[in-house]
UniProtKB/TrEMBL annotation:
Keywords: Acyltransferase, Membrane, Transferase, Transmembrane, Transmembrane helix. This is Acyltransferase family protein. Residues 29-366 form the Acyltransferase domain. One of its GO terms (cellular component) is membrane. Its EC number is 2.3.1.-. GO terms for molecular function: acyltransferase activity, transferring groups other than amino-acyl groups. It is an enzyme of class 2 (transferase).
Length: 706
């Protein structure tokens, strides 16, 4: 059995156990663990391709927080003091908010000075959410919102973990207070025996909450990993693990040889997770148990301070220093990573990354000396009421400034010059017969980039596109009323089909069309299995195939629909044959099978060519940060690759009656495909055409319709 290190046992067995402080006193290895945790996170953010699992540093922080906070609250109970909730929360405010609000305000100013205006709304939204400590829920929502999930990372995206911690700090004392109240009930004491003691009740209650959270984490990680990563309930068990370590061992640490080996095993578990986990690891489900267990083992088994033990390494002065400033390092490093490339106008190199590492540490140290320590220990926020007022004023001020940044983004919109430019406004600028001059136009883009980018978060027809998960058909009715329509048409496909809504609505006015929509995020209507490399599970893949089959059958049997328009971002996918039907060429044959089904039912099938690809960056953002719009253009051979499945399928099916809408000349000339044509921005993001450009293409579509 390993020896147990406490003040009492060290006096009884001096030859076996060294005297050392209990958990009620300073444990230097905890500061060392903080240093390890923050280094893992920062190095992962700087070199994600090398330290692929460095994100587990956040989980180490969570366990530390659970351990320390639970230890502190239980000591208050042992001392006979009342569990002062308002005092506890005031201490958290003094400890955390001054530096947090400072970095948020600096990030807000940096966004205004250096970040393109197209990103101001996202930055303001996330800074406001971070000030209110709900950033993790905003990111969880964005992760399932197709219009938001491709947003560029904001300078405060890392505040998601701080939001989780603050929510823990608010709820955990309430849970402990409830458990203590139950423990003091005479009826409970008579029934539960030893469990009715404050410590026993806390252990039982926290174990139950932790187990429930772990089960939920495993289930949700399997179902929706992007949501599971951010939401608080999937992380509660990590705090609970730290809390249980504090309560069960209650100030004791093991210090024998076996304990030292277990402490090294804990370090190894953390290192293994950091080195081998990656973006494809299901997390934070059961895999998070590795860094959580590793952290707990270091707490419990670091009683031996001898040279070369984990405690010795984690107690060295550099580790203690970095642990002391770890909060500030975490706060500062990510804004530097996000903002500096905009300042330098190029991606970060090795030397810039090393500079960020040093600058983050220096800023953290300065912040600790000038902001954190004075406000935490000084008289200004000593009274709880003042601390609460400081928090309220700071949050309100930050949120108000966020509204100001958003307003500034949209106040710079250029005037509408469509009437002035005439045929040279929009795609007409690519027609040599119009003699328009530069394809991109001589005027600044109208609408401005920020307004075009806003279409990503505020779609014209919200709720008219099914989510990637699920097989339910979502359909909307556009155009003229069905009772007044000369024809009912349908538009089917993924979000690229949704992008054609404005064009079809324009045509509907001239042709008295009633439009029915059948679109689903990342899901072309094909009989083949579409593969998207970024997906961590195949659940969306299965749902897409099933949804496409339902749509194909429904439209084939709908006698009111005369024409079906199909569109897809087909170059974003690869295609495989379904289990029950081998295709010679799945990318082409899958589309062809569905279209033949519709043709056999008497429908006309009209297929949009895949739109040209871009650089991969949001086009409005590229335009906002580049002085020359041509820097955002793409050579034709890269913009229109040969693997455009939906285009190739339409070509193959032309002899059978499928009509192909070809708009290459409205996007490209012989050399380039343009981000701006005739002072009109072509794309609202990295692939979807803007609403303005879709409307402007309506006449060109009309000329090609039967």
């Amino acid at each position: 059995m390993p020896a147990i290190r406490t003040l009492e046992t060290s006096r009884k067995h001096p030859s076996a156990v060294r005297e050392a402080p209990a958990t009620s006193q300073f444990q230097p290895e905890i500061q060392g663990l903080r240093a390890v945790a923050v280094l893992l996170v920062v190095l992962y953010h700087l070199w994600p391709e090398r330290l692929t699992g460095g994100y587990v540093g956040v989980d180490v922080f969570f366990v530390i927080s659970g351990f320390l906070i639970t230890s502190h609250m239980y000591r208050e109970v042992q001392d006979g003091s009342a569990l002062g909730l308002t005092r506890f929360w005031a201490r958290r405010i003094r400890r955390l908010l001054p530096a947090s609000l400072l970095v948020l305000l600096v990030s807000l100013v940096a966004a205004f000075l250096w970040i393109p205006s197209t990103l101001w709304e996202v930055a303001a939204r996330q800074i406001g959410a971070s000030a209110l400590y709900v950033q993790n829920w905003v990111l969880a929502t964005d992760s399932v919102d197709y219009s938001a999930q491709h947003n560029d990372a904001s300078a405060v995206q890392h505040y998601w973990s701080l939001s989780v911690e603050e929510q823990f700090y608010f709820v955990w004392p309430l849970l402990v207070a409830l458990l203590l109240y139950i423990a003091r009930r005479p009826a409970v004491a008579s029934k539960l025996g030893p469990l009715s003691s404050p410590r026993g009740m806390m252990i039982a209650g926290i174990a139950f909450v932790g187990a429930t959270s772990l089960i939920y984490s495993v289930v949700l990680t399997a179902q929706s990993p992007s949501v599971a990563y951010f939401v608080t309930p999937t992380r509660v068990w990590e705090f609970a693990a730290g809390g249980l370590a504090a309560l069960i061992f209650n100030g004791r640490q093991y210090s024998g040889r076996l304990a030292t080996a277990l402490a090294w095993a804990g370090v190894a578990l953390i290192a293994y997770a950091a080195l081998t986990f990656d973006s494809g690891t299901p997390f934070p489900g059961w895999t998070a148990m590795l860094p959580v267990l590793g952290t707990a083992l270091v707490f419990i088994c670091s009683g031996n301070p001898a040279r070369m033990t984990p405690r010795w390494w984690l107690s060295r002065r550099p580790a203690i220093f970095l642990g002391d400033v770890s909060y500030g390092v975490y706060l500062w490093h990510w804004p530097l990573i996000v903002v500096l490339p905009f300042v330098l106008r190029h991606d970060l190199g090795t030397w810039e990354k090393l500079l960020i590492l040093l600058a983050s540490t220096l800023l953290a140290w300065i912040t600790k000396l000038t902001v954190e320590d004075p406000l935490r220990r000084g008289r200004l926020l000593k009274k709880s009421l003042r601390a609460y007022l400081f928090a309220a004023v700071g949050m309100v001020l930050t949120v108000a400034m966020c509204f100001g940044l958003t307003s500034a983004a949209y106040s710079e919109s250029s005037p509408d010059r469509s009437a002035e430019l005439g045929a040279c406004y929009g795609p007409g600028a690519l027609d040599p017969a119009n003699g328009c001059g530069p394809v991109i136009g001589k005027e600044t883009p109208s609408p401005a980039p920020a307004l075009v980018a806003k279409q990503n978060t505020q779609p014209l027809h919200p709720g008219c596109q099914a989510d990637a998960a699920g097989t339910d058909i979502v359909s909307c009715d556009l155009g003229v009323d069905a009772s007044q329509a000369k024809e009912t048409v349908a538009i089917v496909g993924d979000s690229h089909a949704t992008a054609w809504y404005p064009a079809l609505e324009t045509l509907a006015k001239d042709r008295s069309w009633h439009i029915k929509t059948y679109t689903k995020s990342s899901c072309p209507v094909t009989a083949a299995v579409r593969i998207q490399a970024s997906e961590k599970t195949d659940s969306n893949q299965r749902d897409c195939l099933a949804w496409g089959q339902k749509v194909a059958r429904e439209l084939a049997g709908n006698k009111s629909v005369g024409t079906i328009f199909a569109a897809s971002y087909s170059t974003a996918f690869s295609f495989e044959s379904p289990d029950n039907e081998p295709f010679k060429d799945p990318a082409v044959d899958g589309f062809a099978k569905v279209w033949r089904q519709w043709l056999a039912a008497g429908k006309k099938v009209v297929v949009f060519d895949d739109v040209p690809r871009t650089t991969g960056e949001y086009v409005p953002t590229c335009l906002a940060r580049q002085q020359d719009a041509l820097a955002c253009a793409v050579p034709v051979n890269k913009a229109i690759p040969p693997n455009t499945a939906i285009t190739n399928a339409a070509k193959a099916m032309s002899a059978e009656g499928v009509k192909r809408v070809v708009l290459r000349n409205q996007f490209c000339d012989n050399k380039l495909c343009y981000p701006v044509v005739g002072s009109m921005i072509v794309y609202r993001d990295f692939s979807h055409i803007s609403a303005e450009y879709a409307r402007a293409l309506a006449p060109y579509i009309a000329k090609q319709l039967p």
